Amino acid sequence: MPVGIFRVCLVVITAIVNHPLLFPKENGTVPESTEEIIQKMKEREESLRLEQLRLEREIAEQEATQKSLENAPQVVEESKEEKVRWDMWTALSMVIFLLIELWRQDFQEGNWQDTGGEEDDMAVLGKAFKGVTFPDKAVLASFYEKRILGTTGDMARMREMVEGFADDLLEALRSVCNRDADMEVEDCMGVGSMYENWRVRKPFVCDLIVPFAPPEPYCFRSQTWCSGDSFPPDEQGYGTIKVCRADEDVTGCICDKTKLGEDMLCLLHSQANTTRPSSEMEDLLCFKNTQYLDADQVMKWFQIAVTKAWNRISHKYEFDLSFSLLDSPGALKIKFRSGKSIAFNLTPVVQYENSDVYFISHFPRSSLAADLPSSTHWFLTFAVYERRFIQLVSKMLPANACHVICLQILSFLHGKQCSLTGPSGLTNYHLKTVMLHLLQARPSQDWAPGKLEARLQDMLKFLEKCLHEKKLYHFFIGNGKVPAELGFPIIFQRAEPLNLFRPFVLRRDVYRKTVDTFHEMLRNMSALINEYTVHIPLAQTNGIHKESL
């Protein structure tokens, strides 16, 4: 045992001495040359090796003397135990060496980040920003006016048209459903960039969510990853929905968990309530032989119901309606006779208790998103609270605040770069999360219109820091500073923060592609913005605005 402890300590000391952060390449406080440092390290390593050999000889002599005083069976037994200990400490030493090597490789791969300590913790300037010319506020204002501002009116007209049609479609859906057996559909709500007024890239797509509930006497009882039971890391952000009778005990009766004798009867539940036919639960869109709501079953039911509803009202409209994506339940497309089309998403959701958090059956996919654990796991969306938070904060900001403009410019730049070099792991939701964090961190006066340039740089620096650390936390989950006016559920505020960049740790190829795309976007930023401000006359801008992206 002492030999093993000494070996581990020796490994740790060697790792500290040889770690690259101890002797950085650019350090003006170290007067020695590289050759002198290497020579000293070799001398230190040789002295430690000689000391180790001396201690091993002394310990070996002591152990030999002790073993000679013991009988043969004890010697054999102790030798086996000592061999097991020696193998254990040897394996531990190998693991430590492996961790040191991985640490060194990570340092080499991530050395584009400047490790200077003078920058603010929320805005670390890395090497990616060296040599990058940021457009000034006059150029940014001109770019916004010519490229983005004109989309506001288009979004408003499209929202009005889509919402009116969706209300008519859902009313027809209710009329074709059996109210005693089918799910009950509520009114739809608009969420996402179209309803937060920062969508810039075409085609415009409205996102509408439609809450639904089971018929009486059933109800939904949900369970999230932060409700007490342990969930694996890859299931954080998800939950399950159980279909129960309204009079069923929430915690579950013992008669449902224990096999009762033939002469015993539960006084709370009749035999008819304790067992339900499998076909009945499948009619309630549950996974086979379970009481858990199945997202795939919900998708099939919703698509069939929408098709029936459209057949009932199609004679009123002079356009066609079709599903644009087979694997998304409510991805719809309106096709006019002129050839133009409008896309929108009508997605079924389940309300979490009495809040505005919803379980969403299908979520937009990205290259960073992992596959669902199963069709009974539902992703939680906080889109309604995100929209309310932006509206609440906007009332406290100066007139014509620049927070939405910053997000629009960043979204445009990233989308344009992805169209040139291919998709990356970043999504518009990540960009919006960066804005939400900065809205909470910075005082309201920092978002004045004249500070557009500074705030855009803040968002880019914050995003670079998150990419370097592979950490971008969900804005609401684990955030104890959410304004009380929102009425946000306390269970999610007390939960552990949810890292949206966790998949980057597991998928290095996607991470490297994302970082490369981000760096390329920084280098091309001025060129992309100038393309729509300086070189393109105002008369031509509107034409490009309608045709591109």
Describe the 3D structure.
This is Inositol 1,4,5-trisphosphate receptor-interacting protein. Helix 11 (403-421) crosses helix 13. With 549 residues, the protein is of the alpha+beta class. Helix content is 49%, strand content 11%.
> What is the N-to-C succession of helices and strands?
HHHHHEEHEEEHHHEEEEEHHHHHHHH
Helix content: 40-55%
CATH topology of the domain at 121-248 and 279-534: Beta Polymerase, domain 2
The number of helices is: 17
The largest sheet, given as strand count, sense and whether it forms a barrel, is: 10 strands, mixed
Radius of gyration: 31 Å
Shape, per Cα inertia axes = globular
Total number of β-strand segments?
A: 10
Q: What is the level 1 CATH name of the domain at 121-248 and 279-534? A: Alpha Beta
Strand percentage: 5-15%
Compute the separation of the termini in Å.
67 Å
CATH architecture of the domain at 121-248 and 279-534: 2-Layer Sandwich
Mean model confidence by pLDDT: 78
Give the structural class: alpha+beta
Point out poorly predicted stretches: 20-32, 105-125, 256-260, 267-277, 535-549
Coiled coil: 38-72
Function: Enhances Ca(2+)-mediated inhibition of inositol 1,4,5-triphosphate receptor (ITPR) Ca(2+) release.
Keywords: Cell membrane, Coiled coil, Glycoprotein, Membrane, Nucleus, Signal, Transmembrane, Transmembrane helix
GO molecular function, one term: protein kinase inhibitor activity
